[in-house]
Here is the input.
Amino acid sequence: MQTPVEMAETGGRTVYVKTVAVTDLPKDVQASVPGRKQLYAVHDEAGEQLALVADRKMAFVLARQHDYAPVAVH
Here is the structure.
């Protein structure tokens, strides 16, 4: 959960970072990431996927670079 200060800084723009099994992705995406077992998806508050990246840290950096406040989904 964001603190009031974080909400003010980001305008309440929260995104969620979650692990995604490559086997759960479309075949064309699977083919583009050979050897990977998981990726990290960044979703907005409505559940729309905004990004899919190979590295968890990169998912958080990417979100912050676009003025979002990332939160991990367990």
Remarks:
- Helices lie at 4-10, 27-31, 56-65.
- Residues 4-72 form one domain.
